[in-house]
From TrEMBL:
Name of the gene this protein is made from: gltX
GO MF annotation: an example: ATP binding
Protein name in UniProt: Glutamate--tRNA ligase
Catalytic activity: tRNA(Glu) + L-glutamate + ATP = L-glutamyl-tRNA(Glu) + AMP + diphosphate
Xref: NCBIfam families: gltX_bact (TIGR00464)
Keyword Ligase belongs to the record: yes
Start and end residues of each Glutamyl/glutaminyl-tRNA synthetase class Ib catalytic domain: 3-307
InterPro entries per record: aa-tRNA-synth_I_cd-bd (IPR045462), aa-tRNA-synth_I_codon-bd_sub2 (IPR020751), aa-tRNA-synth_I_CS (IPR001412), aa_tRNA-synth_I_cd-bd_sf (IPR008925), Glu-tRNA-ligase_bac/mito (IPR004527), Glu/Gln-tRNA-synth (IPR000924), Glu/Gln-tRNA-synth_Ib_cat-dom (IPR020058), GluQ/Sye (IPR049940)
EC id: 6.1.1.17
The entry's keywords: Aminoacyl-tRNA synthetase, ATP-binding, Cytoplasm, Ligase, Nucleotide-binding, Protein biosynthesis
Length: 445
């Protein structure tokens, strides 16, 4: 079977980490199977869909490392949906209903008060041609419902295993609104048939939709794809994710300095039997996608866990991977500086914190001027390299008798103005003899 999957966001806001989970599971599955990853913009809501959001979605997918192989827009495919609707009407599966929202709400409340499920009673099916003409003369316009077969629909879910929904417990879904616009369901099925989607991988909040969509597939003469419904991500406190949580948008995470591989690793591996760990190579991450290993319980997205993953990735980045970013921040020092500081970073942007330690100016902290003077006198001649720090501190130890923290902390404070930071064996050659001597004399340098 040729694998063709789709990610179908509505361009009404920015993608968040939960959306990324769905996109990545689809794209990586397709990559592993040598298939096709389709980006389908569900933009039938012309009033709320914005080009800026569509552009941002594509930018986010590229940043994550999963650019689509094919891109389609539902707003350009309305004739397909109109044709499908007419076929369903002709088959008696799509029927006109005229109830207002208020009338439907009243009926649901009455059913609930009587202990009955709030399922649409199909009253519209009993309308005569005269009834419909009268209602339309009153100014009412119909919405169109799909008549479900009252039977159990079963499928083998890639994540959940054997699954079923009793369609007798569902209301006939509205597929077309009074104004003629389409709800999600019909265009989605039509596109899945026309694009030959082989697998629909999405969040478990769509499980009930699956039974409805399988019946629409059958009514339109299309083959149903395989379905997989993964668990959803929540915040660390258990709150559901939404587009209003800007700090968890992919744009927000990117602007916050997160590495795409860290975001992808957490989005794919959290809530599965795989240990959450940084995976820098997307091919390797694709090999870890196993739908049978995804938990049924919601998975919590923890900012702190993402920070830790990001740090582990940054610590392993080669200089070539960050060269341009460092240059863009005005940071010099080349590879030697990067290797000296990278294990102290959570984000690459944090490198800007440590460059002033090399370039200055630094306000030295000197508590014992005599110790600092002896240390200055022990500075060896240049050129300096990675061995200079040990040779110098051995000389200072011999000259002052200080050792351990009493030796190293005053040197760090004098050279950097701080009591913590990267290993000075790597920074000292970059600081250089002139600046080191001046700082040991208490000068701002």
């Amino acid at each position: 079977m040729t694998v063709i999957v789709r990610f179908a966001p509505s361009p009404t806001g920015y993608l968040h980490i939960g959306n990324a989970r769905t996109a990545l599971l689809n794209a990586l599955f397709a990559r592993r199977e040598g298939g096709t990853f389709v980006l389908r913009y569900d933009d039938t809501d012309l009033a709320r869909s914005k080009r800026e959001y569509a552009d941002a979605i594509l930018e986010d997918l590229r940043w994550l490392g999963v650019p689509p192989d094919v891109t389609v827009r539902q707003s350009e495919r309305f004739p397909l949906y109109a044709d499908a609707a007419e076929r369903l009407k002709a088959a008696g599966r799509l029927y006109a209903a005229y109830e207002t929202a208020e009338e439907l709400d009243y009926r649901r409340k009455r059913q609930l008060a009587r202990g009955l499920p709030p399922v649409y009673d199909r009253a519209a099916l009993a309308l005569t041609d005269e009834d419909r003409a009268r209602l339309e003369a009153e100014g009412r316009r119909p919405h169109w419902r799909f008549r479900l077969d009252h039977r159990t629909v079963a499928w083998t879910d890639l994540v959940r295993g054997e699954s079923h929904v009793d369609c007798a417990s569902l209301s006939d879904p509205v597929l077309i609104r009074e104004d003629g616009t389409y709800l999600y369901t019909l265009p989605s099925v039509v596109d899945d048939i026309e694009l030959r989607i082989s697998h629909v991988i999405r969040g478990e909040d769509h499980v009930t939709n699956t039974a409805v969509q399988i019946q629409i597939f059958e009514a339109l003469g299309g083959a149903s794809p395989a379905f997989g419904h993964h668990n959803l991500l929540t915040t660390a406190s258990g709150e559901g994710l939404s587009k209003r949580l800007g700090h968890l948008s992919l744009r927000g995470l990117r602007e916050g300095g997160m590495e795409p591989a860290a975001v992808a690793s957490l989005a794919v591996l959290v809530g599965s039997s795989e240990a959450v760990r940084p995976v820098a190579d997307m091919g390797e991450l694709a090999r870890l996608v196993d739908f049978s290993h995804i938990s049924r319980a919601p998975a919590k997205f923890d900012d702190g866990e993402l920070d830790a993953l990001n740090a582990r990735l940054v610590h392993g980045l080669d200089y070539d991977a960050v060269r341009d970013r460092l240059a863009g921040m005005g940071i010099g020092g080349d590879e030697a500086f990067w290797l000296a500081i990278r294990t102290n970073l959570t984000r690459v942007a944090d490198a800007a914190t440590w460059w002033p330690v090399v370039e200055g100016p630094v306000s030295p902290v000197i508590e014992d001027a005599g110790f600092a003077a002896t240390a200055a006198a022990c500075l060896p001649p240049e050129p300096w390299d990675a061995a200079t720090w040990k040779a110098w501190t051995d000389a200072v130890k011999a000259g002052t008798g200080a050792k351990g923290r009493a030796l190293f902390m005053p040197l760090r404070q004098a050279l950097t103005g701080l009591d913590h930071g990267p290993e000075l064996a790597g920074l000292l050659p970059l600081i250089g003899r002139d600046r080191a001597e001046r700082r040991l004399r208490g000068e701002v340098a």
